[in-house]
Amino acid sequence: MPIEDTVGEMARLKEEGKIRFLGLSEAAPATIRRAHATHPITALQTEYSLWSRDVESGILPTVRELGIGFVAYSPLGRGFLTGEIKSPNDFPEDDYRRFHPRFTGENFERNIELVREIGEIADEKGCTPAQLALAWVLARGQDIVPIPGTKRRTYLQQNIGALSVALSESDLERIDKIIPPGAASGDRYHAQGMTTVNR
Predict the structure, then answer these.
(1) How far apart are the C-alpha atoms of 199 and 194, rounded to whole Å?
(2) What is the pTM of this model?
(3) How far is Cα 150 from Cα 156, in angstroms, rounded to an integer?
(4) What gap in Å lies between CA 102 and CA 10, rounded to an integer?
(5) Would residue 147 be called left, alpha or beta, if left means φ above 0 and alpha means ψ between -120 and 50 degrees?
(6) In sequence order, which ranges of the chain are alpha helices (DSSP H)?
(7) How confident is the model at residue 194 (pLDDT cuts 50, 70, 90)?
(8) Which side of the chain, N or C, has fewer Cβ within a 10 Å radius?
(9) What is the rounded distance in angstroms from the CA atom of residue 26 to the CA atom of residue 149?
């Protein structure tokens, strides 16, 4: 279905008072522009973290040009950037990450090295790796709102602590050298899942 039809239907729901704002998820720049031309889009939700930075090349510039807010989901890399996962065996038997491209085989080994280096910077800053990862997302712009998945109150409190982590320009440059765009090994999803993102 063309995005114009989808957004047109959502706009009618707004006119009827059933919704207040329109948002998109995992949309490519051209789709965002077409949707926004049909009706103003308030926010775009897309995965964004230290190891999922593909939005920086086209999507972020597009939403910023159009004045659309950006909601960064999985800012902790599906839990990988917390530093709590040391081995694929740390995942419960029914955890989908056991089969996720970034969490298996050689990809896991390469990615865990990146997390270790980020953990060293976190130690220097007196924070957790998760707080550092969230602080990095927050430092990318005031128009970006990270939404980490939080199952426990203690994690929520730790996540809030990221607001107190100040990253200097030299910190950001150092982090960028460790995990530049494209540094993570493996795709965000399996091949079928990748066909549904940034379209």
Answers:
(1) 10
(2) 0.84
(3) 6
(4) 35
(5) beta
(6) 3-15, 29-38, 59-66, 105-125, 129-138, 153-160, 169-178, 191-194
(7) very low
(8) N
(9) 17
